[in-house]
Amino acid sequence: MQILFGVILLINLNLLNAQDKKANPIIKQIGFNDGKISLNKKVAFHYLTVGNDFIIKDLKDNDVIKGSITHLGDNKFSNIITFVSLNKQLYSEKIIGRNQLFFALCKDNVINENFEIDEVKLNQFIEENNDSK
Q1: Is residue 17 part of a domain?
Q2: What are the Cα distances from residue 62, in Å, to 3, 9, 46, 118?
Q3: Partner of 76 for a Cys bridge, out of 27, 72, 83, 110, CB 3.0 to 4.6 A?
Q4: Per-residue pLDDT tens for 26-41?
């Protein structure tokens, strides 16, 4: 009985810790201006758009994220987002475009204080937000 209570307590503490991390984002300010994405008032990434596609690059000009927006009709859209360096993909009908993506990533602390993508948090983010095709 004590072991069961201990396991339940650990699960609750982990859930509280996860909620606390989402409630206290690392990135508190996001800006998009002139092909640059600023996080916490520092330029963190560059972006470019080509038609319905976008590319996010790090400051060394390496591709980090690629996205492609598709019109589904009836004013609905979908987005296929590829996290290039981690070889991960997200399909979403809720998170459309670079702005919504960055707001969601920062809200869930997927991007850390060094403006790098945390792979463990990204996996959880994809699991929570991936819509089946």
Answers
A1: no
A2: 49, 44, 10, 17
A3: 72
A4: 999 999 999 999 999 9
